[in-house]
Specification:
This protein has 5 helices and 17 strands. The protein is of the alpha+beta class. The protein has a single domain, classed as Aminohydrolase, N-terminal nucleophile (Ntn) domain (Glutamine Phosphoribosylpyrophosphate, subunit 1, domain 1, 4-Layer Sandwich), CATH 3.60.20.10. Strands 1, 2, 3, 4, 11, 12, 13, 14 and 15 form a 9-stranded antiparallel sheet that branches. The chain has a 6-stranded antiparallel sheet with strand order 5-6-7-8-16-17, with helices on one face. It has a two-stranded antiparallel ribbon with strand order 9-10. The two termini are about 25 Å apart.
Length: about 270
């Protein structure tokens, strides 16, 4: 989620829990990262979301944020351990960077073709290694300027990275640097068993003052100020029945800032 102003984000995770253990294969841990005051409030657990006391705590306590990333894991690489749960968080250039990936990248080719540089993975997943490789590409840009580098330069680097890992397997990912949210859609396993696009869906919503709330399956968002709110949601499947959801094309990269989509292009 990216929003115009801080929103009280309440994750009951009821629908997410069904995917996280009560039904479906995604039962190998989960995580949620809320940006707050230039830092990140991170919750992770190895227990299925359906059985997690931490999930119940989050359900009963809304945290205010304008940028939130969440992930429920289906383990394909790495042990069932906290170090392998997403989202992953690292500091670079005085900013907190958050990454979550859905897919499976060929591990040997990934490590042979992409240099992770000085960022060493803590766990064993392809997703964390890919995040380290992304940070290596961003390192010079972030360390070469004061503050936040120009969005166009960040977008170009993320697009090139997306093209590289897309050749190694399904590469749906969300990446945030505290200023913008980048969503890259690729392929994922569909209900018919085929691996194809879409891998991500997007919703951009304006909530007028006094009506600044959005309720989705397992998620409610309400403007903390009560004023007009803009929200962008990216998810593996639509979370509401409203018609505004659109599938991202295979290889499409979207950048959102403060609840508005500011760039959308295929990562050629």
């Amino acid at each position: 989620m990216s929003s115009r102003v801080d929103a009280d984000v309440n994750l009951s995770l009821e629908e997410f829990s069904r995917h996280g253990g009560l039904a479906g294969p995604h039962k190998d841990g989960w995580g949620i990262a809320y940006y707050a005051e230039r830092d990140v409030r991170l919750f992770k657990d190895t227990r299925p979301a359906a059985d997690s006391a931490c999930v119940r705590f989050i359900r009963d306590n809304a945290f205010a944020s304008s940028l939130v990333l969440s992930h429920i894991r289906r383990a394909t690489q790495g042990a069932l351990a906290l170090r392998n749960c997403q989202p992953f968080v690292r500091e670079l250039g005085g900013a907190m960077h958050v990454f979550a990936h859905n897919g499976h990248l060929a591990p040997r080719r990934l490590r042979a073709q992409l240099d992770a540089g000085v960022c060493r993975p803590v766990g064993e997943t392809d997703s964390e290694y890919a995040f380290c490789a992304l940070l290596e590409r961003l390192r010079r840009l972030w360390r070469g300027v004061r503050g936040v580098p120009p969005l166009a330069k960040r977008l170009a680097l993320v697009a090139r990275f997306a093209r590289e890992i897309r050749a190694l397997g399904p590469a749906n990912f969300l990446y945030a640097d505290g200023d913008a949210l980048f969503a890259h859609g690729d392929r994922r396993s569909q209900p018919d068993g085929r691996v194809r696009a879409p891998g991500l869906w997007l919703l951009a919503r304006r909530c007028p003052a006094g009506e600044g709330s959005l309720v989705a399956e397992g998620l409610s968002i309400e403007s903390a100020s009560g004023g007009e709110q803009h929200v962008v949601l990216a998810a593996s499947v639509p979370l509401t029945a409203e018609p505004g959801w659109r599938p991202l094309a295979e290889g499409e990269l979207v950048a959102a800032r403060r609840g508005m989509v500011i760039s959308s292009a295929k990562a050629a």
